[in-house]
Design the sequence.
């Protein structure tokens, strides 16, 4: 009840237009995520995640063959699945709930140092980003990781400002533990935020504060190691530190430093759909210099942390020497947008524009309109970027779902059909409850119930397909079902 009372007071402290705007954004987030969770077909990685969450709690905490096991997320998914809800809805429910909390606390982080209308605008921009919107509806741990990054940042803001309040120490420690237990690369976000918080908090509150802060961080780290003991015992530790699919590199490689910059530019593009990272970095440095002169070195914790966070990936990659999948960095939207907010705020302060309060209704209306407009385009963009998922969903509903079971599946093992063949196999295992079903190699005289054939080998098999009926075709991959005998 204390949490509810404090947050109601926080919301009521703003103008009525801001209150309405924040509630509207949260409603848009809830409605949009729910719609997408029901509308989007399951993705390959989501089907693979069901190998953990649809199995048992022990499987979730002890099996880590690939980084698809976002452990804490899959524990939550498992909890919803055993309630009896449809598996695909239950598995996605943690992401939906986490995304709503993330949007709210993102606003609180912005509002700590920035005007309320500008915070609403930044929040609208955050939830309108494609990767943030999509992963708020998928059965993957990224929405949960975004939540814990935002909560960690928020708790550090409060600890630095108020001193070592117990509830914020608990929130900070819990965010670290649960974030790391969801995805190990949460450490990428923890390092820059914790370093700035430690220095800033020690200068403001003294050594006792730093000792408490360090103790909570160490305890959270120890609990994380203990939580991963079953995985470390039963799996290769390299699966956690250097997962399959993540490209390793060495600083001695020709062009290694240029590759890092190129990689970071691609990450920026994934978030914002433009490649102006270098221009943005220059603008951040310029605003940093202006603020240092204007405030005589007295930078706010939020701004300083956002700047350090902004540039931290380059130095983290230098140390880790691994290029993770780009989606692992989507939490970088937090420092990028915070820096953008401070740029706007700095320009208005320099121009002596102090009309944020009077423009609040207009800013909130524009933010809400742009958010709704952007969200309306998410489904189309998702369909274009994951075409195979929609095609397989169509095939399933119209040809495979009516069948009581699928006894055998074969593929021609050509690269073009690897993705649909593997995804379809997982769909059959989970939806038909046939976990033991294995993919077979297509031979010259096929007799399997379902054939997945690449167009390049189709001419050689035409004579043997008389006992099969055509079921579907997409991107040169053909699906055939054996006729009833």
Sequence:
């Amino acid at each position: 009840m204390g949490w509810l009372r404090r947050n109601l007071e926080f919301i009521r402290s703003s103008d009525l237009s801001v209150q309405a705007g924040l509630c509207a954004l949260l409603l848009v987030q809830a409605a949009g995520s729910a719609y997408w969770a029901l509308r989007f077909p399951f993705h390959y990685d989501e089907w693979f995640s069901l190998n953990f969450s649809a199995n048992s709690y022990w499987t979730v905490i002890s099996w880590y063959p690939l980084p698809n096991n976002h452990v804490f997320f899959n524990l939550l998914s498992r909890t919803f699945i055993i309630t009896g809800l449809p598996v695909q809805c239950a598995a996605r429910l943690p992401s939906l709930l986490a995304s709503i909390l993330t949007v709210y606390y993102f606003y609180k982080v912005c509002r700590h140092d920035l005007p309320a209308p500008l915070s609403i605008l930044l929040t609208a921009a955050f939830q309108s980003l494609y990767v943030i919107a999509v992963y708020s509806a998928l059965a993957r741990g990224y929405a949960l990781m975004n939540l814990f990054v935002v909560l960690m940042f928020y708790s550090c803001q409060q600890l630095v400002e108020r001193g070592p309040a117990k509830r914020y120490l608990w929130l900070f420690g819990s965010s670290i533990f649960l974030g790391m237990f969801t995805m190990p690369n949460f450490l990428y976000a923890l390092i820059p935020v914790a370093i700035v918080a430690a220095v800033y908090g020690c200068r403001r509150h003294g050594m006792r504060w730093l000792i408490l802060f360090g103790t909570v961080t160490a305890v959270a780290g120890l609990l994380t190691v203990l939580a991963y003991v079953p995985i470390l015992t039963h799996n290769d530790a390299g699966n956690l530190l250097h997962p399959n699919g993540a490209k390793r590199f060495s600083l001695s490689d020709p062009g290694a430093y240029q590759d890092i910059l190129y990689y970071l530019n691609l990450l920026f593009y994934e978030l914002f759909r433009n490649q102006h990272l270098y221009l943005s970095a220059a603008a951040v440095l310029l605003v940093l210099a202006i603020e240092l002169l204007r405030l005589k070195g007295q930078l706010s914790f939020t701004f300083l942390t956002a700047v350090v966070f902004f540039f931290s990936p380059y130095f983290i990659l230098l140390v880790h020497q691994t290029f993770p999948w780009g989606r692992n960095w989507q939490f970088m939207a937090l420092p990028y947008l915070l820096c953008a907010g401070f740029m706007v705020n700095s320009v208005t302060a320099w121009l002596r524009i102090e009309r944020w309060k009077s423009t609040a209704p207009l800013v909130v209306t524009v933010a809400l309109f742009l958010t709704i407009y952007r969200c309306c385009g998410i489904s189309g963009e998702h369909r274009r970027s994951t075409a195979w998922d929609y095609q397989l969903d169509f095939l399933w509903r119209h040809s495979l779902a009516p069948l009581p079971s699928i006894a055998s599946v074969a593929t021609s093992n050509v690269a073009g059909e690897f993705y649909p063949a593997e995804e379809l196999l997982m769909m059959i295992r989970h939806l038909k409850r046939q976990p033991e079903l294995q993919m077979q190699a297509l031979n010259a005289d096929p007799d399997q119930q379902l054939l997945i054939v690449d167009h390049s080998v189709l001419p050689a098999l035409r004579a043997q397909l008389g006992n099969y009926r055509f079921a579907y075709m997409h991107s040169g991959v053909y699906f055939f079902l054996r006729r009833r005998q």
